[in-house]
User: Fold these one by one.
Assistant:
Number 1:
Amino acid sequence: MIIVKLGGGREINVEGVIKDLAELDQKFLILHGANAVRDEIAEKLGKPTRVVTSVSGYSSVFSDKDAIDAIMMGYSGIKNKRIVELCQRNGINAVGLSGIDGKLIQGERNKGIRVRKGEKVMILRDYSGKPKRVNKELLQLLLDHGYVPVICIPITDENNVAINSENDDIVNVLQEALRADTILSLIEAPGYLENRDDENSLIQTITAGELKAREDQVEGRMKRKMLALRKLIDNGAKTVVISDGRVEHPIKGALAGKGTTIK
Amino acid sequence: MIIVKLGGGREINVEGVIKDLAELDQKFLILHGANAVRDEIAEKLGKPTRVVTSVSGYSSVFSDKDAIDAIMMGYSGIKNKRIVELCQRNGINAVGLSGIDGKLIQGERNKGIRVRKGEKVMILRDYSGKPKRVNKELLQLLLDHGYVPVICIPITDENNVAINSENDDIVNVLQEALRADTILSLIEAPGYLENRDDENSLIQTITAGELKAREDQVEGRMKRKMLALRKLIDNGAKTVVISDGRVEHPIKGALAGKGTTIK
Amino acid sequence: MPECPVCGGTVDLKGDTVEGELIACAECGSELEVTGVNPFTLAEAPKEEEDWGE
Amino acid sequence: MPECPVCGGTVDLKGDTVEGELIACAECGSELEVTGVNPFTLAEAPKEEEDWGE
C-alpha cells in the first residue's frame, strides 16, 4: 500500500503523477492539497485568504465560514474532481472524498489561539482543528472493491462541523489506519534541503534519529513538519520519500529514491 | 427506497429538508442541483454562465471548460459538501459523490447543436451530454453499509471526461437502477401549475396518461420535463411528488401529498 | 476543393468558410460539417439534436 | 463584577473589556476569558496552543 501526498502548489505536475500511478501495480490512495487554487478563488470572490499570527509567533490561515466555503470550492470542488477525472481517463477508478464524506477524517476543533489586538490579548477561534482518527471501514470498503480514494480537506470535528486541517497531520492518521509501507510526499522542491534557498543542498537520506536531532534545532512550522514525518516512521512506514512533484515522472522518480528518503 | 431530488435555487430550504429526512425510517438518497450558487461563482470569477440558443429555438447552458470548473466548484464543491455537513450534523451518514466519482453516472457526449452565427450555421460542441447508466454496485455498496449518497453533476462521458448534464435525466437513470417506489422532487413552486404565474393553479394529482396528453400540447423544455417525469413511472416508481422546497417541512409536506402527485 | 463524403462529388467552398460551419452538398444535398481548413476537410454533420439539457 | 471561576475572588473589569478578551485574575493569577458582556461572564482560558496548522 502506498500513500501519495500531493502538494497544493501550481507547479505540481499532477498529470505526470497520475500517468505514473496508472502503471503502478500496488494499491495506493491520494491525499492532495489545493492551497494555490483556493487562494485564487478566495481572492476573486473578494474574501482573500487571511493569515493570523499568534502571540507566540505562529502564523496560520484564519478559517472563518468564507474560508471553509473557499476550501469546499477549491479543494473538494475543482482540484479533487479534476484529479478524479484525470485518474478515470488513465484507467484509475478514483472516488473523490473530503474528510466529511462518511466522516472519513474525524478531528477535534482547535480551542483558539491568542492574538494581539491593540493593547489587548484576545482568544481567536475559527473552523480549524487537528485530525484524530479515520473511518477505516469506508476506506477499506472502497479499496477492497477496486476504487482509489482521492482525499482532501475539509475534515469533520467532534460536532460534525466541517473544519480546516493540515495535510501533514492527516497523512499521519491515514498511516495509523492503513499502516502503508511507503509514503511519497511530492512538493515544489527537489526534496528536503539543508538550506532552503539552495536546491543543491538536497539531503539524500536521513534516519528517524537524525530527523529527531534536526527537529530539536528548529522552531515553528518546520519543527511541526519534521515531527509529523518522524511519526510516519513510528507508525510503521518503511520508506518515506519527499520528492520533486514538478518533474516529468514524479512518482517514478520518488520510487527510484530521487529526493530525500527517510528510513 | 426514496429518491429525493433537490432543486438548485436559492429559496430551497435545504436545512428543513435534511431535518425532515433525519426522521425518516426509509432508505433514501439525495440528488441535488446548484445552478444558483454556480451562476454566482461563475459571475464573480469573470466567466459568467453563457446560454446559447439552437436554430430550432432551444436554449441551454454552454458548457465549456470554464463552465465545468464552475460546476466543480459550485455543485460538487460548496453545495455538495454543505449538504453533506448538514446531513452529518443531523445524524445522516452522508457521502457526497459527483457522477465522475467511481464512474457513478455514465453518459454520452452530445454530438453538437446548430447555432446561427451571422449568415452561417455552425455546429457547436461542448462538455455536455445525456446520462445512460449508473454504477449500481457502488450505490448499493454504500447503501448496504449505512451511507446516504448525496449526488450531483458533473457526470462522466464515454471517454471519462467530466460533462454537464440535466438532473431530470439523471434521476431517471438512478430510478432505472434503484427502482425506488417514491420520488420526491422539491422545486421553488407549490408543484405543477396549470398556469405558471398563478400559484393557485396547482394540479393536485395527475395520471401518467394525463401527463402524456399534456406533453403533446407543449414544446421545448416543459415537454422534456414531462417526458422525464413519465419515464419515472414507466421505470417502476409508484409515487412521484413535485412539491414546494421552500416551506418549513418540505419532505413531510411531499410525503403527505402536498404539491402534485403523479400516479 | 474537397469531396463530399456521402456522394463523392466535389464541394465548392467559399473563401470565408470556417471550421465548424455547416454546408449542404450541391450534388446530393447532404448536410456536411467543415472539420478542417487548409486543407478543407468535410464530414457528414451529426444527427439533429435540439438542445443539451441544462 | 464577576467572580473568578478558579478562586471565587471578584474580578475587576475595565469599561472597555470586550468578549473574547483574556485577562489575569488579580487574586489567583489564573488566565481567564471574557465569555460575555452585559453581564460580564468569565471562564478559564483554554490551554495554550501555538497555531492551527495550515
Note: Chains C and A do not touch (no CB pair under 8 Å).
Number 2:
Amino acid sequence: MTDEFEPRIVAFLCKWCSSAGSDLAGVSRMEYPSNVLPITVMCSGSVSPLYIFSAFNKGADGVLVSGCHPGDCHYLKGNYYARRRIALVKKLLEFIGLEPQRFQMSWVSAAEGKKYTQVIKDFVKEIKPLGPQTKLRRNQ
Amino acid sequence: MVKVEDIKKEAKRILKEGKVKYIIGYKKSTNGLMSVPAFIESPEDVENLIWDPTCVYNLTRFLVDEKRRKAREKNPDERPVGIVVKGCDSRAIIVLLQEKFINRENIYVLGISCETTGVLDEKKLLKKLNGKKAEKVEYDEKDNFIITTLDGKSKVPADEILAERCLECRANFPVINDILFGEKVDRKLDNRFKSLEKIESLSKEKRWGFWKEQLDKCIRCYACRSVCPMCYCDECVVDTINFAVTADTTAEEKAQRIKWVEKSPTTSENFVYHFVRAIHLAGRCIDCGECERVCPMDIPLRFLNKKMEKEAKELFDYDAGFDPDQPSLVSCFKDEDPEDFIR
Amino acid sequence: MEKILTKKSFSKWVKKLESYKIYAPVKNDDLWNYEIIDIPESIQPDYPNTVLSPKKIIFPQREIFLEFKASNEEGLEVKEILPEERPAIIFGVRPCDARALTLTDNVFKGDFEDPYYWKRRNQTILIGLTCNIPPSFDCFCLSVGGSPHSKDGLDILMTDLEDKYYIESLTKKGNQLINLAKDCFEEPKVMDKKDLEKIQANSEIQIKRQIKDIKKIPKKLKGMFDTPFWDKESLSCIQCGICTYLCPTCHCFDINDEVASSAPLKGKRVRTWDNCQFPDFTMHSSGHNPRPDKASRLRQRILHKFQYFVELYENFQCVGCGRCISKCPVGIDIIEVLDKVRDYGL
Amino acid sequence: MDYNVYIPKLAKIIEIKEEVGGSRPIKSFRTHFINKNDFSHRCGQSAMISVLGKGESMISISSSPLVKDYLQFSILKMGRVTTALHEMQVGNVIGIRGPYGNGFPIEEWKGKNLVFIGGGIGLAPIWSVLNTALGKREDYGDLILIYGARTSKDLVFNDELKELKKKITVFLSVDVEEEGWKEFVGFVPQNVTDKKPSPKNSITVTCGPPIMIKFVIKALKDLGFEDEQIYTTVENKMKCGIGKCGRCNIGKHYVCKDGPVYSWAQLKNLPQEY
C-alpha cells in the first residue's frame, strides 16, 4: 500500500447521459481512476444544492455534477436549470474559501465514455495536490 | 419628511371604515429605545403608532403568521391586513406575491419612503454613545438623526449610525403601496456590493479562516430563519421531525426522513444550515438585513445573501423584489447563461 | 475569608493558578463571551453581560454521552464518555449567572443525578465580580431574589474598589485558591470594608428595572392558563430560540444519535440544547402536538419559570440577567409580560 | 454517583411476536439483559429503549413484574425508532434504561374489584397490571377487561385473550361491523356504557388513545364512578425519561418521572397539555 492520498469524489450523474457515459467507459474497458462514488440521478437539474453540501459535509474531497449537453436534456430544460443553480453554488462555496477545484460540473453524453474518463482523470489530478477536504467535513 | 400624524390619520380611517382587520406597524417598546412590532386592531390604539429610525423590523414576516392563522380558522375574516413597509420591506411583499404565497387583495400597504436616510443600527448607536442609553432617536430635515439622551439632544449624521444595509440600499422607496408617505428621492450609490469587497479581496485561506470563525459562533437559535419573511417553508432541513404529518403518514415515511443536519452546533453542521439557507434565498433575499440584525452571536449573515444577490446580478442580470410577474431566479434560464465553468 | 488584592498583584495570583483551565470574559469584535484564556490579563471591571452565561461551560451546548459500535461478541458495544478530568476556574462571573447555576442544580440532582453536569460543576470554581454598575440596561436581579453582589453559587466574590479588589472567599475551594498565593493578598482594613459596603449599597440603587409584586405572580399565572392573554402577548413572537438559549437558567435538552457509519454501525449519542419555543420540541411522532402554537409555547416559557418552578423548588427560575429582553429580535419584554400578568383582569 | 443514568444496558431480543399486521403493525418483543443487573419494575412503568444509531423511545413494559425471565414490550410502529425495532430479528441487541415513572398503585387496590378498559395498543400497560393481579388473584376482587380495537385484526394479545376469557370476564369490541364477530360492535366508551361495570368497591384503569380516554371517563362518571376510582395513563414526547430535558411536563408534573399514571382526580386539575 502506498501512502498517496486518494481523493473521494462524489459524482451526481444524469441517468440519461453521464451515467450511461460512465457505463460505456466501463464496458469499453477504458482506464480511469477509481476514486469516484457515482450516484445516478434522473437529471442534473434534480441535484439539489443540499446534496452537494451534504456530500462535502459527509467527507467528499470533491463533488462532480454531470449532465447532458445543452439542448440534449431528456426533460428538455433540466440541464439549463442545473447550469444556473450550480453556478450559484460554485460561487458560494468559493466565497467561503473552498478550493474551486473541489466542485465541478461537466457535460458528458451517453456516447462520450472517453470524455467521462478524461473529466475524472483531470478532476483527480487537480484535487490530489490539495489533500483531503477537511473544511466542511463532519468531525467523526 | 414623513409625518407620523399622516400615517395615523390613514390608519384610523381604514380601521374605522373596516377596510382592514388590523394593521401591523411600529410602536414604542417598554424597555427603552427601540420600537417593537404593533398589531393595531382598533382606531383608538392607532395613537400608539410611531415612525422613527428605530423602526428596523421587516414586518412582512408577520404576513406568514397571518396566512397560517387564517388557514386554521373556520370562518376567517377575509378583509385585508394593513401593513407598514419601508422600501426594502416592500420588496419582500413583491417576492411573496411573485411566489404566490400571498395575494395582493389580502394586504393593504402603507408605504413609507426612507428618503435620504434609513433606519439605525442599534450596535453602532451604542458605540457612538459610548454605552450610554439613548432615550429617543428622531429624523431630522437634513440627513441627520436627533438623539436624545439623559444629557440632552444632539445631532448625528445619519450615515454614522445607519444600518449597513441602508448604506447600500437602492430601494429607499416602497415599490408597492396603497398609500405612500414621504417622497421618492433618488439615491446615489457608487457600488451596491461594496461591503462584500472586504471579504472577496481576501485570499482563499483567509476567507475560510473568516467564515470558519463565524460558523463556529452559531448556536442554532434559528433567529435568522425565524425572522426572515422568505423562510416560510412548512418544514425546514434542520427540523428534527416531519411537521407535515397526517393520520395517513406511515411509520416508514417518518423513519426514512433524511437527517441532513445534526443538531450539534459544529462547523460542519452550521455550514450546511447556513448554506442551504443562503442558496434558498438566492434571488429571493431583498436585503432587509434582519437575519444579521437579530443574530445574538453577531454572525455577518448578510454577506452570504449579498454574495448571492451580486452573483444573480452579474451572472444572470437578475434583481429580486421589483417585479411580481418575473419568474424566480432558479426557475428560469437564458440560453446565454454562463457556462465557462463547465467541462 | 476576606482579603484585599491589589490590581497589581492580580496577575501574580492568576499565574499561580496555571494548573487550572481558566475562563474569563473575552471580547471578540463587539461580542463578549467566556473563553479559555492562556495568559489572563486583568479583568476589565466594566464588561457588559456576556452573550452566553457560564452555563455554556457547565452545561455545554453539545455533550457526548456515549459511543457505540457494532461488535462481534455481543453485537453491540456501548462506551460511556465522561467529560475530561480537569479543574477549571471561571473568572468574572456575574452574581446573577452564578445564582442561575444553583437553580439549575435543582434540576440535575434528585433521584437521577446527571453525571455529566455534576462532573463539570464539581470541578469548576466560580469567581464572581460585583456589578458596581449594571452590565445591562435590562438587569432586574433584585426583583427575583438576587442582587448585584449576591454570593449564591460563588466560591469567591471580588468587588472592584478602584485600585484593588475586595476578596470574599465563600467556600473551601475559594480558600484553597487564595492559599495557593498567600503573599499576593493583604488583610482588609476597616476603610476597605466601609468602601465595600458603600459600593454594594450603591450597586443596588443602580438597578432600575423591576417586577413589582412578583410574589403574587405564580398564583395569578395558575389561573391564566386558558386565557386569550397568551395569544395576544405572543403575536409578535417569531419563535426563535434566543430567549431560552441565552437564558442562564434554561436547561432543556435533546438527545440524538449521530451516526458516523451505518455499516458497520458506529456513532455517538450526544446531548444538545433544545428549546421550548421550537415546534418540534413537544410534537409527538403521530403528529399530535400538545403545544401547537406560539401562544402555548410562550406560555410554557413564562409558566415554567414563574409558576412550575416555584411550585417545585420555591424559586423563580429566573435571575434577572435581562438577556432575553435585550436580545429578543422583536422586543418581547418579560418584565412587561409579567406586569400585565399581575394586572390581568383587574 | 455510582451509575450513569443515561447509559442503556444491552439486552438481546429473545422472541418476537407479530400481534397486529397491516398499516399500523404491532409487535411484541421479549428481551433478556446480556449482563446481570438489578432491573426491577412496577406495573405501569416504562423503559427507554435504544436502537443505537436511531435513538431512543419510551415504551411501557407489558410484562408483569412477577415474570423474571424476560421483559416484554409491545410496540406500535410509529416513527424512526419503532420502525427500526420492527425490522429487528431475534438475537439483535437493543439498549434499555429504566424503569421510569410512577406505575400503578396496586398495593392500595388490594381487596378491590379491578375494571380494565383498553383500546388498541393501550392494552400493553394494562397487560402488566392485569397479569400481576392474576398472579396474586387472592389479593383482588372481580377482574373485568373491556377491550376494543378498530377491527378484530387490530386486537393485540389475541391468543392470550382467549386463555384469559377462561379466568376472568372479558368484553371485546370492534369499531365497525364485521363478518363472524359475535361480540359488541361500537367504540370502547359505548361498550363501557353497555356493560355497566359497578362502581362499588372498584378501581378502573383506562389506557388508549386520548379521545377514547376522554369519553370512557365520561361514561364512567355517568355510571357513578368517583374521580379517585378512575386511573389512566398519559403520554408525551420524551427524551431523557428522568424529568430533566423539559418537554413532557404538564404543569409542574413531568410525565416521564411523575406520571404516566394519574387518577382522574389528579389529572382533571392539570392543564391540558398532553
Note: The first strand of chain B starts at residue 23 and ends at 28.
Number 3:
Amino acid sequence: MSAVPVAIVGASGYAGGELLRLLLAHPGVEVRQVTSESRAGEPAAAAHPNLRRRTTLTFSRMDDLHPCDTAFLCLPHGRTVEVIDGVLARSERVIDLSADFRLRRAEDYVRWYGFAHPRPDLLGAFVYGIPELHREAMRGARLVSSAGCNATAVILALHPLFKHGVADTRCTVVEAKVGSSEGGAGVSPASHHPVRANCVRSYKPTGHRHTAEMLQELGLSGDSRIHFSATAVDLVRGILATCHVFLNNRVDEKQIWKLYRQEYGAEPFVRIVKERDGAFRYPEPKLLAGTNFCDIGFELDGDGNRLVVMSALDNLGKGAAGQAVQAFNLMHGLDETAGLGFAGLHPV
Amino acid sequence: MSAVPVAIVGASGYAGGELLRLLLAHPGVEVRQVTSESRAGEPAAAAHPNLRRRTTLTFSRMDDLHPCDTAFLCLPHGRTVEVIDGVLARSERVIDLSADFRLRRAEDYVRWYGFAHPRPDLLGAFVYGIPELHREAMRGARLVSSAGCNATAVILALHPLFKHGVADTRCTVVEAKVGSSEGGAGVSPASHHPVRANCVRSYKPTGHRHTAEMLQELGLSGDSRIHFSATAVDLVRGILATCHVFLNNRVDEKQIWKLYRQEYGAEPFVRIVKERDGAFRYPEPKLLAGTNFCDIGFELDGDGNRLVVMSALDNLGKGAAGQAVQAFNLMHGLDETAGLGFAGLHPV
Amino acid sequence: MSPLHSTCPICDATVELPGDVSASQVVRCGDCGADLEVQALDPPVLVEAPAEEEDWGE
C-alpha cells in the first residue's frame, strides 16, 4: 500500500501542529504540503518546536495547494466555508476540523453561531467526525467534519444513556474543565501568563456553541437540553467534562457498567475508567495528553436518581487531530489505530 | 530477528514505568516480567495508569525472576549491589539504572555516597551509560550502568568544551532546575502537593552526588571542580541545567557552533538549539517530556570569557529510561533509535 | 541541477539553497534560524536579512 499524499491547510496552529506530528509518524501517510497564510515561507518547526529536525517542510500559501488525496483543514470558523470549493477542486477527500460543516441544519448556524451559512447545500455532505457513532458512514467517505473537543467528550459520555432512553433529556447539566490550548495559538489579554496561570475561571457559564453538536448527535430536540458550562483551569491540554444526568427510573451500578460496556467494550479509543482505589480512579486529562483516548467513568448517586458521568480527553488529541487521523484511517480502509499508538505519559 | 525477552526489576517506580511504556511499544522487545516487592501480585497498570489496557503483566517478586536476555534494574541505590549476583545468574545482560555501578573507583563511593562499595570487583565491568560518549564500548556489552539524569544533562553540555581544552576546569558553576518526578514515586512531606506546588526551592545548593559522575566522565580530577546546585521548580518531568563556563581564551560564536556541531552534529538524540527568535530559542524541558532528546544551546558573554551552556532533557527519558533503551539497542546491534521515535508534545 | 550550498554567516552551518533560488531571495538557516538574503549566486553568498528585533518585553 503506497503512502497516501496529504496536505494540512492552516497548519501553523495547535491542531495543525498536532496533526503534523501524528501524520509525520503515520506509517501510511506522506505529508506533501503544509499551508499557512501568516507563516508562508517559514519552516514548519518555526511554529512547532517539537518538530525540529523532524521535517524540512515549509509553509506555503493555500493558493499554491497542489492536488493531493486528503486535505485536513484547520482554518478558523467561518473561513473554511469560503475556501471549500477551491480545496475540493484539488483534493479527493477533505477532513475539516472547523465547525463550518458540523451541523446538518442551516438554521442551527443562525441560532448558535449567529451567521447565515453560505453553503447550506454542503451541510448534509459531511459525515460528523465521531467514529464511535458514524464508523460505517466514514468507511470510504469523501468528506468528514471533525467534531468539537467539548462536544466529543460530552457526546461520548452521554450517548449510551440517551440511546437506551434511561435518562431524562431535559435537565442534563454538564460542566467542562478545560485547558488553555483550546483557545488556540492566538494571543489575547486573557491568555497572558500572569493572567491565565493558576486560574479557575468561569469563562463560558452559558451559551457555549458546542452545545449545538451535542444536541444534534445525541438525537435531542424539542424541550431537551444540555445545560453546558466551561471553566478554564490550570492545564494546557485536556478536558474533564462532569455530566450530571437524571435517570428516568432506578438502576444499579451493574446495569450502568453493562450499558457502557455494550457501547464501548470493543472500542480501541474509549476506555471505561472507574476503579476502587488509587489516585486515578476516574478519568484524568493529563494522563491522556498526546493520545487519542477518551476515558469515561461514572458514579451513581446513592439517594437519588442522579448519575455523574466523567469524561476526559486531550482537546488536541481525541478532541481534534487524533480523531481526524482516526477518521482518515477509516476513510482509507487502514487499521483504525494506525499512527495513534501513543500510550500517554505518567507521571506528567 | 525474534523479539528479545527482557525483564524490569523494580518496575513500580517512575523510571520502571517509563521503561515499561517504551519497551511495550518497542518493535524488537518482549517484556516477559516486571517485578516489584511492594506491589507483588498487582497488575502493572495499578502503578502506571497510562498503561491501562496496554499490558496484562502483573508484578512478581524478584526471587521469581525467570531467565531472560536483558534485565533492567530500577532498584534504590545500595540495593542493586546486594542482588546483582542473583540477577547475573538469570540474565545474559544487565542495564542498571541505579548509581551502584556508575563510578569506576571504590573510594569515590565513600566520598560521594558515604558507603564502602561491597563489590569493587564489579565496578570496572559496567560501561557508563551515555551512548554519545561510549557507543563503541556499548556495542555487544553485557553490563551497562545507566547515567544519572542531572549528570547526563551536564556531561553532554560540557563534554565538547573540556574534550578540546577550551574551558577552565576549576571554576565551572552549574545550576539545574529540576522537576518533582526526580524524587521518585515515594511520598514525603516535601512532595505533598500544597508544599511542593509552585515552588522554586533550593533543595541541593551543594554536595549533589551526581557531581562524582560528571567529574569522572568529563575526565576532570585534581583541583578541577563542577560547582553544582539544584533548584526544584514547578515541573513534574524535566531538567534545565544552566552551565557557566570560563573560557581559556577568546573565541567567537562560530567556533563554539563548530565545536558542538563536530561532537553532536550526527547524533540522533542531541540537538543544538540556539535560535534567533521565537519563544523557544534555547532548550526547553517541557518540549522534551516523553522523548529521548537532550537539547543543548549556548550564549557567549560579550564582555568577558564566560560561556553559558543550557542543556535540557526529560529526567525520566534521556535521563533514565530512554537512555537505557538507547543502550539496549546498541548492546543488541539494533537501530539505535528503535522504540525512541516520540517527537514530544507542543503545546504542553 | 544539484542543489546549491552556501554557509550561514551567523553560525557557519551549511545552507542548502533550492534549485530555483534567485538573488535577494530570503532563506532560513536550519541551525540558528537566522533569515538570510541571497546576495550573489555564482558562487552563492548569504548575508543576514534585515529583521526587526523581536521584543519579548520581559
Note: The first strand of chain B starts at residue 4 and ends at 9.
